[in-house]
Amino acid sequence: MKRTFWATHSAHNCFAYFCLIMGIRSVLSKPLARWVVARQQEWMHKPGAAQQRWFEQLVKQGRKTAFGADHRLADVRTVEEFRQAVPVRDYEDLKPYVQRVVDGEENVLWPGKPVYLAKTSGTTSGVKYIPLTKDSIPNHINSARDALLNYVHETGNGRFLDGKLIFLSGSPEMDHKNGIHVGRLSGIVNHHVPAYLRTNQMPSYKTNTIDDWETKLDRIIDETIDQPMSLISGIPPWVQMYFDRIQARTGKKIKDVFPDFSVFVYGGVNFEPYRAKLFESIGKRIDSIETYPASEGFIAFQDTQTEEGLLMLLDSGIFYEFIPADEYFSDSPRRLTIEEVELGKNYAVIINNNAGLWGYSIGDTVKFVSRDPYRLLVTGRIKHFISAFGEHVIGEEIEKALQFAMQQQPETEVVECTVAPMVAPAEGLPYHEWLVEFATPPRDPARFARDLDSRLVQLNVYYDDLITGNILQPLKLTQLPRGAFQQYMKSQGKLGGQNKVPRLGNDRKLADGLREVMVNG
After folding, report:
1. Does 2 map to a domain?
2. Rounded to two decimals, what is the model's pTM?
């Protein structure tokens, strides 16, 4: 496989790539950071103009494709005309075009053929193939780089760039389909780091290709435990598993095993439920950088340690649209530009990008907390909710209720949790079941459940109506044994890497799977 400078990779593993470069030339990090932040200011304060430029560039290229011909992009001049021509689609809706790309056809969604197909596991679609083109790859590379450089610029801390770094990711092994490289997004980078830059990267390529997560994790620990690790990156629950095994092996806090560890980079899930346990394992507070990467594009990153929210990247190859979450499933939902969104409201994210995704619903919901610049919080998944009784409880509300209950009993440490409806209990009214695995359980579990329920009542008026109207009884808390979620994910072939546990669901598939794990041990 040909190695090229630009042809890469996972949004998270871009951090690894950038850090390898900066490990050799860390002295340049501060002036480079000043340059990046200065350029960033140009579009941060003119977001509408930046988005309009990308809209025009994308449509111009789209006219050269089969998709463009089918949707008459040659006649599109305005955003409104675009909305009339291009409907909102999820992966299943776009799949006929993607399949033509997978089959090797050129000029289907974007001029030419993609460099990669990022293979991901969809919640409803099975395996998905997301195209990455030569034009879209800089979105992943530069956004990952800029997240670190914003941190360097604000804090002045560039020392971590000279240490060892690790990203807990999937295998970098690649397949091929009709001349296109196919692999997990988090592993693609390993094929594009020049040999002379590999000295800072961990684990080894051989270890990274191990399929079994537990075996792989033990090998990673073998390779890293005596190294000067300074940056660790990954999805919080799998990083916690890495920390737990190191502590079991050494009997030490992570700060004593890795005294140079100073920056934690994460994304993919809400950090708050994991924060207390992670920092307890580390043994000290360290800086963290939150990112919002997806196979479809790198959408936002934490640009400051002092303000809430992630900076939305509005000048990086993507033209965004936003659908109010409460309109998403209606017949004619509004499609808003960045300048039309309001603070504090949940929106489904729609992207149009230079990889050939058009009117594409990525499935996430966000809420803006600032408009100058535009900063957002990721609030959940548009199809992940509980509405078995008309309550439409969303992920953000689950997260807030959990955080509230943990604040009331600060000793509590949560490993993982999920929520499911119990529609037909053996006796009594229906209810929501919270299945929680605690690292440190609350002193008073009954009070913890009451706190969860009271906060959810405050957050969701429909849930409140169902409780006060005696249609639902208050939620019930089920404490799971340690390792339950890991055992379940292992049973599903989804242990480690980029796999995430859904925080809630409208059915009991996950809940029943966890209960089966409890029974069978």
Report:
1. no
2. 0.82
